[in-house]
Amino acid sequence: MAIKAGLGVGLLPCFVGARDAPVQSLGQGKPIVLRELWRVYHRDLKASQRVIRLRDVIQERLHTHLTVQAETKPSDRIA
User: Fold this and answer.
1) What are the tens digits of pLDDT across the range 38-48?
2) Is 33 contained in some domain?
3) In a domain, 55, yes or no
4) Which residue among 30, 51, 57, 66 is the one 20 to 30 A from 75 at the CA level?
5) In degrees rounded to 5, what are phi and psi of residue 74?
6) 30 lies in a domain?
7) Number of independent structural domains in the chain
């Protein structure tokens, strides 16, 4: 909210900043920070259809986001 209000700069994932028009990228299209994403759940839930579906939805959305980012020119990125 502080970044959106113009109170300073901060580090946001592209897909978060892309939702808000007032947020502008200061980078040159190269990621500043790379992080791993770990999906963790109790082994008893490994066969749970809800957990499997949530895992699949998260994976699909991340894949879609990363594919769109790879196809977007750095100068076209909003955040």
Assistant:
1) 888 899 999 99
2) no
3) yes
4) 57
5) -50, -35
6) no
7) 1
SS3 27: coil
Cα atoms in the 13 Å half-sphere on the side-chain side of 73: 2
List Cβ neighbours of 21 (8 Å cut-off, separation of 6 or more). Answer: 78
What is the spatial distance between Cα 27 and Cα 21, in angstroms, rounded to a whole number?
Answer: 16
Measured at the alpha carbon of residue 62, what is the angle toward residues 43 and 68, in degrees to the nearest 5?
165
For residue 52, being part of any structural domain is answered with yes
pLDDT digits (tens, 9 = 90+) for 16-67: 777 777 787 776 666 666 778 788 889 999 999 999 999 999 989 888 877 7
Residue 76 to residue 73: CA distance in whole angstroms:
5
Domain residues for the domain of 48 are 39-74
